[in-house]
Amino acid sequence: MSTYYVSQNGNDAHDGLSPEKAFLTIQKVRETLQGGDTVLLRCGDTFFGQLKIPSGPSPEQPTCVGSYGEGKKPELSQYKIALPDAWEKVSDKVYKLDLTDTAKFTGNVTEINTNVGFIKVSNKIYPHKRFTLEDLGAEWDFYNDDRYVYVYTEKNPSELSDDIRFACQIGCLPFTNNMKVENIVFRGTGAHGINGVANSALIYNCEFHEIGGSQLHGFPTPNTRYGNGVECWANSANITVDHCKFSGIYDVAITMQGRPVKTSWTNMHFTNNIMWNNQHCFEIWSAGDVPDTGFVDCHFENNLCIESGYGWSYAVRPDKTASTHLLLYGIGCPLCDITVTGNTFVNARNMTVFKAGGVCQMPKGYKIFGNTIICPEGQALAWKDKTSDEEFDAYIKKLEEDNTVYRHTVFTL
């Protein structure tokens, strides 16, 4: 098994086997890495491109991603950064940039993709994606086709900022079996941070920021947008996400979801994480008809969840009802053994728990106890929907008995 080093001062002609002979690019890592190898990114550096790693030979011999050196965690970014002379004027207040021409931008020039999730201008996110060119009408509105991104600005965008970044539909790192990822910052994608199916994965002390917003093509509801921090798709098992940080996620910091479910999500642990200003913190949904499948031995414990629903994506969501810490959509599989305990939930925008269909359909195995809930006075703890008054009142009473609830009239972080 080999250990490879990557640095902004490296060279892809090197062998990568020492800090002095480090590689330069993520693309070279993808070409070189084999199952069970380790890749270390230099602290303080930013690397552009999607990282794909092969499965490790076994849980005891995972393929590893980590860091070396001193300073801030290394960053894996998918941003495409406009060059000053890249803009073409289309009409009054509309300019375009060719996202298929790598002479027009820096950043991630390896993966070509034009499905923009959001624009970041001088460190401020602009989320207003429009779905026809004619709908552009406010400053930094944007639209993309299969080649160009179009923006609405009072003057040439390069006159307004020298730092214009596009988060496109390029995930940072797909899951694979037998993997370990530590001390990495994932940033600037219109898709997901880490996602897919895996058996045996550890994500430790990583960060996930500014993620999501791309259009989910093929979804039944037109113009649906998406993007999660860590998405564990159907048939994943033995995954731990521990001591990580999540902010600015379009949808959910951590989610277990998918179809069709053939085997259960088993031995899943999401612990000691900090999540703030995401639309949601923890989500589940499942679909499948295989007996004795679903969620088994899954834990969301000792996390700090702050101000869900107050992130950048709230303004552009067509349905703003579910602005919540805990999110449950359709639960089609029979098993739902999930423990939610030891967490602190602070100031969700609308409610602490959202279950599609209301709390009358809350799975009995989804256990919420021993948490601290801080919320505004008068805010419902859960989504009532069509639940009867009696059922809803009984569920709220149980939440209050099983957890510590503090209500406030004025709350300042």
Q: Main sheet, how many strands, which sense, barrel?
A: 10 strands, parallel
The class by helix and strand makeup works out as: mainly beta
Strand content: 35-45%
Distance between the termini: 47 Å
Chain-averaged pLDDT: 96
Low-confidence stretches: none
Strand order of the largest sheet: 1-2-4-16-19-24-27-30-33-36
- What is the approximate shape? globular
Query: How large is the radius of gyration?
Result: 22 Å
**Helicity, in percent?**
under 10%
Count of distinct strands: 38
H/I helix tally: 3
Protein described:
- The protein has about 425 residues and is mostly beta strands.
- Helices cover about 5% and strands about 40% of the residues.
- It has 3 helices and 38 strands.
- Strands 1-2-4-16-19-24-27-30-33-36 form a 10-stranded parallel beta sheet, with no helix packed on it. The chain has a 10-stranded parallel beta sheet with strand order 3-5-17-20-25-28-31-34-37-38, with helices on one face. A 7-stranded parallel beta sheet has the order 15-18-23-26-29-32-35, with no helix packed on it.
- The longest helix has 14 residues, at about 390-400.
- The radius of gyration is 22 Å and the shape is globular.
- The protein starts with a strand and ends in a 5-residue tail after the last strand.
